[in-house]
Amino acid sequence: MEERDKEKAKGSERWTAAITNLSEIAANLDSLQKLLMKKAVYVDEETFAKASLSSEQARTIKVLEQRVETLERELDAAISAAARARNEKRQAEAAQKAAELRALEVTRELENTTKVFELHMEELRAKQEEISKRDNEIKLLEAIIQTLGGRESLK
Hints:
By secondary structure, the protein is mainly alpha-helical. It is built from two helices and no strands. Helix 1 (2-39) packs antiparallel against helix 2. It is rod-shaped.
């Protein structure tokens, strides 16, 4: 990350130096053009051609400077957008991890609840069997009592 920032800073310094050079050239050309207009009444064709060329180059330099500035703004915007996208990706990954952990927690809770339920069911079945067994014993005892009670009344 730091290396990227260093590279960006170097590139920015180079662009700044290039723009400064272009601005100086444009200023020199403007000065030359003004000087020619004020001082020169007549210039030969070669001088005029050079001045015209310089003027055209100054306009081209200005257009290129504007283009460089536009590209720098677009680059800055792209870098910012990439940083935002990385940040959003990290947040999404963190949210996904939290959701996965919560899903695991809920699954464990369900498994534990299921085990507890199974234990309660086994205990309930055991108690029902015990109640059924005692019910049968009571019926047997009642039958014995009735049988004994019936014999006593016969005597």
